[in-house]
Every structure is written in C-alpha cells, then in structure tokens.
Amino acid sequence: MVESNNRPGWVVGLTGASGAVYGVRLCEALLERDLPVHLVITDAGWRVLHEELDWDSAHRQRTLELKFERFALKPRYYPIGDIGASIASGSFRTAGMAIVPCSMGTLSGIAHGASGNLLERAADVMLKEGRKLILVPRETPLHAIHLENMLKLSRMGVSIVPAMPAYYHRPLSMDELVDFMVGKVMDNMGIDNELFRRWGDA
C-alpha cells in the first residue's frame, strides 16, 4: 500500500497498550482528509489488534488491505523491524508522528533514546528534527517512572495526550468516545476536525 500524493504524511504508530481502536480511527480520519499515513505497528500492537478488534495478525499486509480498502488513499505500512525504512531517516519529509495508543515500554524507549525498533527510531527522528510528536499513553494506575518519563518528554516538546475521554458532550456510544479522543489528537496535529462537540457549541 502506497500513498498517492506528494503531501508530507503523518507517521502513525500502534503499540501493545490497550485502545487499538484509537489508532485505527486516527488512520481512518487522516485518510478521509486525503492525508498520507505511514503506519508502524509493534508485534504487541498486532496482538492487541487481534484481541480487541479481531484483526488477523497472522496475515498482516492482507489484513491492512482489507481494513482500509474503502479509502482512495492507502496507508503505507512498514514492518517493525525495517530499520532502514524511509521514516527512519530525518531526510524523509513527514508532518510529524502520533503513537496511538502508546505503551509505557515504548514511551520509556523514546524517553531514553533507545531506538530499538522502527517505531522508536521514527519517534527519535521527530525529536532530532524538531517535528511534532504526539503520544497517547493508555495505562492506569501510573507509577513514578511512568510520570517521570512523560515529564521528561513533555519538557522536550512532546505532546502527551492521555486516553482520557470526556463526557461533557454526553456521548451516546463507544464510537463517540473514540472520536472525542481522536479529535483531541488531531487538534494537537493542527488538523481541523469536527469529530466531537466542543465545549460551548450548541
């Protein structure tokens, strides 16, 4: 699956934290706006996609083709071990990166510059190139190491957007709760969206 336009795309990462639906919905929302998506999924992320959304993790490329077949623009998928992929280099132009959901293991790896796989390396590229990096952690409760790692990254300019849906818009479905979080992520990306009713809207 390859992108079909020349606009700088967004790197989207999915990890082994619960909440895979957030990452999938973000990909859909970007593709709906004709924005290229460079998709990276950890092995644990594939496990969660299988457990939570019944995705076939044994046939990954084919599964992605089926899940995104309704979109004219397709996400470009990179295996987690492909450390030589284009998104591993700062010379490859992207608009930024969002890791949705972000496990505490991945968050720790990024905070300490581990670059142990393609997802962590792509995040490291965002930091060194001064591009937008958004992490959506999904864990509870949080202990001191989690909090210290998030504080470290926040001080480096990383946007920390915890998966904490609001209820002031009176959601009537799980889809509305998901869209609220994805809308907040897209707000941080600087992408206009109407995925949720904002405070003060009629």
Reported CATH architecture: 3-Layer(aba) Sandwich
- Quick one: CATH superfamily? Flavin prenyltransferase-like
Counting DSSP E segments of at least 2 residues, the number of strands comes to 6
Q: Runs with pLDDT <50, length 5+?
A: none
Query: What is the CA-based Rg, rounded?
Result: 16 Å
| Spatial strand order of the main sheet | 3-2-1-4-5-6
What is the overall shape?
A: globular
Q: Which class of secondary structure composition applies to the elements?
A: alpha/beta
Task: Please bin the fraction of helical residues.
Answer: 25-40%
Which properties best describe this structure?
202 residues, alpha/beta, Rossmann fold, 7 helices, 40% helix, globular
Describe the structure.
- The protein starts with 8 loop residues before the first strand and ends in a 13-residue tail after the last helix.
- It has 7 helices and 6 strands, in the order βαβααββααβαβα.
- α1 crosses α7 (174-189) and α4 crosses α6.
- The protein has one domain (9-189): Flavin prenyltransferase-like (Rossmann fold, 3-Layer(aba) Sandwich), CATH 3.40.50.
- The protein has 202 residues and is α/β, with parallel strands linked by helices.
- The protein has a 6-stranded parallel sheet, with helices on both faces.
- The mean pLDDT is 95.
- The longest helix has 16 residues, at 174-189.
What's the quick description here?
The chain is α/β, with parallel strands linked by helices. It is 40% helix and 15% strand.
